[in-house]
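Researcher: For the record, we're logging two predictions in this thread. I'll number them. Prediction 1 follows.
Model: Prediction 1, sequence and structure:
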Amino acid sequence: MTRLEQLYEEMSNRKLISSKKEFAEKFGFDAGNLARYLNGHLKTTLDGDNYRKFLDAGINVEWLLTGEGEMFLPVFYPERVKMLSEKINADIQKKNDEIAKKERIPILSQKLSCGPGQSWEHEDNIVEYLDVRSLSPVLNSKNVYGFRAIGTSMLGAGIRDGDIVLFNADKDYPPTDGIYVFGLDGDTYCKRLEFDSLANRIKIFSVRVADLEKAELLKTLDSTDEEFAERFKMFGKVFSWIHVANDEGM
C-alpha cells in the first residue's frame, strides 16, 4: 500500500473526507487518475501547491515523502508547520530559479571581445538572455509535453520522422480541427483530427502531402459508441515541433 493510499484510508476512517473525489479536490489531484495514484500504478509528481494543501490539512509532508515520523502533524506545532512551509517555498523557488536559468538562451553582441585568455562565451559578450518560454504563451502552461514522432505519415504538415512534437495537455480548449497526440486501442498517435460535433464523429487523417484535400482518412470514430471512452484518450493538441537532425545532418 502506498503512503498516499494509507493517507486516504486514514482520512476516510476519521471521516475527514467522504469520497475519493473529495480527496482529489482537497489536495489538487486529477480525480480521473486518483485510483492509479493511490495504488502506485501511476506515478504523480507533487508540486508546491500540493505540499501547501497537505500542510494546511495538518499532514506531515516528511512522512509523505520519506515515511519517517507521524502521518499527521500535532495541532500544537504551528511553528513546525510554518518552518516546513518556508522550507518548501525556498526549495520550490530554488528549483524554479535553476529551471529558469536552463531555459535562457544567451544573445551575443555583434562585436565579440575575444582577447587573450577570454572566450567568446564570456558573459561580457552577452547582451541579453532569451527566455525560451517567452517564445510562445503555451510554453508557460504546466501541461506542455513532448512526443517523438515515428514515421512520415505527417510529413505534409511539416513533422518529420524523429521530430519532437510539443503538445498542450490542458483540457479547457474546445475541440477544433488540427494535429493532436492521442491514444487509440492502447497505442499513441500523432495525427490530424477533424471533429463533426453534429454527427458525433472524429475523423483521423495522415497528412503525407501539404494539400489537406489529399490527406488520407484512416478511421472514423463515433463518440457515442459505448466503447469509445475505453478506446480513445485525448492527450493534447500539437502547437509546435522541433526538427531533430539525422545522421546525414538534415
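Researcher: Logged. Prediction 2.
Model: Prediction 2, sequence and structure:
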Amino acid sequence: MRHVLVVSGPPEAPRWQRAFPDGWTLSVTEAASRLGQGDHAWVLSDNDAWLPLVETLVKQGVICVVLSWLPRKEEAFQALGAGARGYAHALSSIELLHEVALVTMHHGLWVGPELLSEVVGATFRALGGGLADQAGVLAELTARERDVVLAVAAGHTNKEVARALAITERTVKAHLGAAFRKLGVRDRMQLILKLSGHLETT
C-alpha cells in the first residue's frame, strides 16, 4: 500500500511526512491518473478541487482521508459523503495519523470525537424527531427495505437485523443492496448522511 499526500502547492505537512517517511506527494492534477486500487491518498482540503478529486479517487478504489487545516463539521460531512474514509486535522500527531491509517486501511471509518457525536446526533434526529422530514427519502422503499434501512442506520449489524426481523442475513443484504441502489448511496455512512439530510444524491 502506498501512502500519498495530495497537495495543491509545495508540501507543507511535516507531521504527515514524518509519520510516513516512505510516502510521496502528488499534485491535485496528477492524483487521478497516478493512483488506483489499494492506494492510500491523504487529500488536503485547501483548494477548490479536493471534493471532486475525492469522489473520483474513491471510484478508482483509492482509500481517501481528507486533511484540513481548519476542520469544520460541514466540510467533514462533505468528505464523508464523497466516500472518504477519514477526516482529520492536517496537524494531527504522528501517532494519530498512524491510527487513522490503520483504521481506514481495514475499511473502517475514522473521525474525531466531536464529529462522531455530530454523526450520532444526526442519526438520532433522522430516526427520531427528524424521521418525518425524511418520509420522501424512504417513500420509494418497500416496507421491509425500510425496516432494514432504519435498523442498519441505528447501528445494528446484519446478523442483529436478521434476528430482529426473523429473516436470514442473506435476505438482509439483499434488501440493503436494493435500498442503497434506490437511495443512491454506497454504504452505511452515506445512508446515515442521507437520512440526516446531509447528503444530496440523484
